[in-house]
Amino acid sequence: MAAATPPPLPGPEEYAYDADPVLIQTPTSGDGVEGGGPWTWTPMWHRPCTFGPSEFDAVMQNLVRNPNVLSSWLFRADILAETTEAAAAAEGAVTPFPCFASLVRADDRTIVRRLIPRNTMRDKPMLQTCLFYRGEEGNDDHEHDDEHEDEDDDAEERSLVVYLPHVSDPAHVPFYHPKVQGVGFLHAWRPRDGRGTVSLHFSLFPETLATPPDDAASKLSRPILARVALSLVNTVCKHGEGKRAGYVKRVHHDQLVPQARVQDRYTRLKEKHARRLVATWQETTDPAKHVFEDLSIAAFLMELWRDMYGVEGEEGVPAQFPGFVDVGCGNGLLVHILNEEGYRGWGFDARKRRSWQQYEHYENGDGAGPAGAAVSLRESLLLPSFLTDKGNDKNETETDTGRTSSTHDGTFPPGTFLIANHADELTVWTPLLAALSGCAFLAIPCCSHNFTGARFRAPPPSSAARQATASVSVTLASSSTYASFVEWVAGVAEDCGWVVEFEMLRIPSTRNVGLVGRRRNVDAVFTVEHAWDVIASHGGAHGFADNVAKLAAADGKKNTH
């Protein structure tokens, strides 16, 4: 007979406006130093849970280090101190630290963090102290002996995490934080029942406490605080129940470049360029998505290049930067952003976009192009020279196409960094051409195309490939169409001699896997013969040169009318 399904847990319940405090702060700090008058902690919401103290502790540790989980207005937290002594010395710290009835400080864990907002034009970063407490209720009057074993089993285990913003005036509290002087997350656990409760408590500023409940300001602020508190308690419970059920983090960001550096760079780029780029958008697509996506990719690239090519010079660009080429550059925005930031490079695509006119940069006859010519964005078809020299179709595509100005032969100056951002038909060619020319690359796969340029479904990744990428993303370890294509491109890159690195980019797109090739796993030179072997082992390139010839011919007819 099947076991009965336990009844579902009740939902969250709001405390009454005049409910008695659950958290009782005493007038003595946790380290025994006399403090001022204790704060009053107003209970806001409580919700039943089935996860114990260990899961609660793990969840709160994660939330302390990743506050963006609790608020989408935040980027991250920079940890400034992790001991009581260091925390007490932090600028604006609320000391002496509070203590609470039936609770004691947990070890020496005291964290001071700097909250970094997404929009620094509106809000400033804020320092905040995070304190951890533990205790029991229900057996204070008994020793742990056999006579009172039942009473011990009934003891309620309590865990408390308190956030104390380093702000003394509610007017200075930033938008992303509730206008309170303290936030308390209390987890109460009953081992015998296997059930517990998570409750959320605010310590209101004295000005707020002094405001009568029927006052207009109070009627406005209380519902806002209640909504924030409900969101906080629901998020903690969601993550706690997931932890108990064995949830595994699906995506691991920031594998190649530290999060703080990329986000800080992104913030600077956004403040400098976003408003102008959105306001002058020429395409019919959503400007916000494309602008913020390319700003984010540019930020990642600039920080990656900083690691690869050395520290920045006076103009902010690494002195040894070799230049870049954006293969299949689309609307040209990414090229434009990088050029605006001083990074030398250009991009090409099969057809010119309406936005190119405003994004084009010009040269002064330095060898990259004639004086006064637009060289940053070029209308060109990719036709690797070895396809026409040797011919995958046994010379059936011997035309002058590979020698005209409307095609690119796939050869790049050694060291050039190649970018393939959702380059579709050109994605899989990028690691191969990079190996032939001695270039590093970043490929961000999107639609599945093989070496012929045709749409296809890549075979599911092998168990070894899944295991290799599971540490980066659970999604990549699946057999979905996108995951299969990403693994297929990565396999091509590895066959070309690359050590492939994965980065789950922080961009507003579900196709956000970046494949980076900057180190070789072989010392031998990658030759055209090697390239043919790789192409053959992955289905061949039959018809690719023919398709390019047809596109070039169609383009020539268009330009004669």
From TrEMBL:
Cytoplasm in keyword set: yes
Major subcellular location class: cytoplasm
S-adenosyl-L-methionine found in the keyword field: yes
GO biological process: tRNA methylation
Any Pfam family hit: AdoMet_MTase
Location of the region described as Disordered in the Swiss-Prot/TrEMBL record: 137-156, 387-410
Family: Belongs to the TRM44 family.
Protein's name according to its UniProt entry: tRNA (uracil-O(2)-)-methyltransferase
